[in-house]
Known about the structure:
Layout: E1 6-9, H1 15-26, H2 31-43, E2 49-56, E3 59-69, E4 78-86, H3 95-109, E5 115-116, H4 124-132
Amino acid sequence: MKRLFSIRRAVAGDLDAVIALDRLSTGAPKPDYWQGVFSLYVTSGRNNRVFLVAEADGALAGYIVGEIRAWEFGSPPCGWVTALTVSPQAREMGIGKEMFEEITLLLKQEGAATVRTMVDRDDKLTLSFFRSLGMRTGRYIELELELD
């Protein structure tokens, strides 16, 4: 079956479309945040940072962001997926799965032996998605403290 979308590295011209897709997905406009992410992941050109986008029918249909982090609390180098979004109109086309497979391949090529992410325990859709890709609870436990 022919794939109806393409995946490529993000370029500076994708910024506005990423901001719009994120706002559609989260309901919160975060242009300053995404400008900073693009500065670190798109324009800096570092191999250990990856920002991929998916296009379908000539429009941005999704994005995934990841990087390799090393030695945080003794953890050897591992990949982290820090953001993943697929447009509601483009879901169930395999875009999220393909972007995840592409980013894990790139992170592995850069030396990662493990890939991690964080998911809100109440976000059943995202949790199910990552579990369907083989991700399971890891050896590290997230701890947090509410600050007043």
